[in-house]
Write a structure and sequence with these properties.
251 residues; alpha/beta; eight-stranded parallel barrel; 12 strands
Length: 251
């Protein structure tokens, strides 16, 4: 059985790491390269860097920042934000990223998933999905949670899977930054209907939340931001706790 992964997520705005609650009220969290180096030394399995305003502002992800990260960090990292075409993927991979994450651009142009998988391999393509529960069920959102779509979470995740995505990164917008636990019921359903790994995002507040994401949610990886950025849960402590709880984790 593959080891579960712990993934700090660094949301980037204007070259700095920021963190908000329910996708708003951003506050500064530090230098993205220094934070990444620190997480690598602490034992993080991977990192995710998201240029959170790239799609909204119509910009490209900072290639230079990716080069700096790659020069200083020795664990795999994923980059997302403002990726619209194969040239963007190639540019970021050449800068040193291991994987790329697409979200708004995948919903607007689902063929992009097929194209990335065919040209670079499925393992490179992480499809991120921001969703929240509505009276009509789980709906997917665009542009950092600003625009509701007609896409339903589970149907869209299945389509992304079939088109060649290597992983699904699911963020529950209702749980984001609230620190009350992940959306484990939705995570578990995603696990049951997909043939690719699912990364849980949104809701980590205590060590038990990670355990629940892996056991109740059946997630393959758990992503978190503020609990790591602000020193609330040291990664070595978290991994030792999970190991004691019989979760298969790399120490």
């Amino acid at each position: 059985m593959l080891a579960k992964r712990i993934i700090p997520c660094l949301d980037i705005k204007d070259g700095q790491t920021v963190k908000g609650t329910n996708f708003i009220n951003l506050r500064q969290a530090g230098d993205p390269v220094e934070l990444g180096m620190n997480y690598s030394e602490q034992g993080a399995d991977e990192l995710v860097y998201l240029d959170i305003t790239a799609s909204h502002e119509g910009r490209k992800t900072f290639t230079e920042l990716v080069k700096r990260i790659a020069a200083h960090i020795n664990i795999p990292f994923t980059v997302g934000g403002g990726i619209h075409e194969l040239h963007d993927v190639e540019r970021l991979l050449n800068a040193g990223a291991d994987k790329i994450s697409i979200n708004s651009s995948a919903i607007r142009n689902p063929q992009l998933i097929n194209d990335i998988a065919r040209n670079f391999g499925s393992q490179v393509c992480v499809v991120a999905i921001d969703a929240r529960q509505t009276p009509q069920g789980w709906k997917c959102y665009l542009n950092g949670g600003r625009i509701e779509t007609e896409y339903e979470l589970f149907e869209w995740a299945q389509e992304a899977n079939e088109r060649g995505a290597g992983e699904i990164l699911f963020t529950s917008m209702d749980h984001d930054g609230v620190k009350k636990g992940y959306a484990n019921e939705a995570l578990s359903h995603l696990h049951d209907i997909l043939s690719i790994p699912v990364i849980a995002s949104g809701g980590a507040g205590k060590k038990e939340d990670f355990k629940d994401a892996f056991t109740k949610g059946k997630a393959d990886a758990a992503l978190a931001a503020s609990v790591f950025h602000f020193g609330e849960i040291p990664i070595p402590d978290l991994k030792r706790y999970l190991c004691k709880e019989n979760i298969n984790i790399r120490l």
